[in-house]
Design goal:
The complex is a heterotetramer, with 2 copies of chain A and 2 copies of chain B. Chain A has helices spanning about 15-20, 55-70, 100-120, 145-155, and strands at about 5-10, 30-35, 40, 45-50, 75-80, 85, 90-100, 120-130, 130-135. By secondary structure, chain A is α+β, with helices and mostly antiparallel strands. Chain B has one domain (about 1-75): Beta-grasp domain (Ubiquitin-like (UB roll)). Chain B is about 20% helix and about 25% strand. Classes of the chains: A alpha+beta, B alpha+beta. Chains in contact: A-B, A-C, A-D, B-C, C-D. The interface between A and B is medium-sized, with 40 and 25 residues. Strand 2 (about 30-35) of chain A pairs antiparallel with strand 2 of chain C, so a sheet runs across the interface.
Chain lengths: ~160, ~90, ~160, ~90
């Protein structure tokens, strides 16, 4: 069995994350893969460096899995996030969700990526043609219930 | 007492270290640790309003009390996930 | 390159369908896998037989891909559907979608599975403990704009 | 003129054949082909209100005209996708 959550510098594989959600009762499986794009806000991106507070990032991914499995009955979720230098086209994050019914598989998967962007302590350092910049998003606060409600609203809408 | 401070990403670069040990009072909170950090490294002040924090791998508040040997992490706004924010 | 659409009696592989949507510009990839469940409406399912009007089913899958790629700019979609006898836990359908942004990847993938159930001429013959039954869903009419609007509403909600 | 009729799933079982050739008038529509089918195989009538149709691999209407040698398919309500309908 693959681990349900991982923060790793090794390349990610969808099949590995899918194996972590295998099991009886599933009727629908969704996956989400985030890829490094070759441009961002008009800049030509050369590569990205992902820096993680690894032990807290692993805990945060586990928290997201727990939140989703509590919210969507019978769901099994796994999330692997990569760190270090990533080239264009490489996968930075892979989420897999298995549920009895398809609506839940889509909702839980969408919830997970929104929550990852809210609370998981991982930072992107973008190296583009002519410079570099740290990409900053949300202030990470796992206890912020308004943020969690936003993720739920986006997922279940 | 001494606590370990962990810094990341641009905040780490501004301070010039990802790991440092700070001396704070025995009744210190996370806010006191932050104030001690900023006193020694004024550039950290840029994150005063946008950072969040964790103590010993638990998300914490500025009012959270810290103990000797604790690991206090200050987290700039995060950007995990895929390469671009969704539409 | 894998084909974008396929109706096949061979086992499906997520990686094969993913390869069909590879290419530049993608920032997000979603997949959906439908699996044969071990029970349905209180019956213990033994296996399923999927019967297809294969040439029209392939055309219908191509139509869904065209609809999605027209609706979601920059999307690339592939759909493989299996036919014949499927055992419990086997994949009956695999959808993959690559888009620049994640919201579109989720919406287009959800759209595809809803449309498959509306218009693709494939039928399920359920063999359960104590009998067998043909599962029937929607009257297949690719020109029914109300059905298409329903799929769009579910996908984009 | 002759047309080929294709039947599937339970409709195929009710008629007892998946492929058959029917003789219809030269100005026949899909509705006429259906009526000819039901006259020969009354059990098909069960699908009169729920089936849809295709002519030569194009979705069609009951009013669509057919020509000699056309393949006319009558489709029971479909059930592709995964094993259970979503919640």
């Amino acid at each position: 069995m693959s681990p349900a959550t991982a923060v790793t510098s090794a390349p990610l594989a969808v099949e590995t994350v899918l194996r972590a959600v295998e099991g009886p009762g599933a009727g629908a499986v969704t996956t989400f893969v985030g890829l490094v794009r070759d441009h961002n806000q008009g800049r030509r991106v050369l590569w990205l460096d992902y820096e993680a507070y690894a032990p807290l990032a692993e805990k945060a991914l586990g928290l997201i899995v727990d939140e989703a499995q509590a919210r969507w009955a019978g769901a099994r979720m796994a999330i692997h996030h990569r760190t270090g230098r990533l080239e264009i086209g490489e996968a930075s994050v892979v989420i897999a969700v298995a549920t009895p019914h398809r609506a839940d598989a889509f909702a839980a998967c969408r919830y997970a990526i929104e929550r990852i962007k809210q609370i998981v302590p991982i930072w992107k350092h973008e190296h583009f043609e002519g410079g570099e910049v740290w990409i900053e998003g949300a202030t990470a606060d796992a206890t912020d219930t308004a943020a969690r409600e936003t993720a739920l609203r986006i997922a279940c809408a | 007492m001494r606590v370990t401070v962990r810094l990341f990403a641009r905040l780490r670069e501004l301070v010039g270290a990802g790991d440092l040990v700070l001396e704070v009072d025995a009744d210190a909170t996370v806010a006191d640790v932050w104030a001690t950090l900023v006193a020694a490294h004024p550039a950290a002040e840029a994150y005063a309003r946008s950072m969040s924090c964790a103590v010993n791998l638990e998300y914490a508040r500025m009012t959270t009390a810290v103990s000797a040997g604790d690991e206090v992490a200050f987290l700039p706004p995060v950007s995990g996930g895929e390469a671009r924010r969704g539409a």
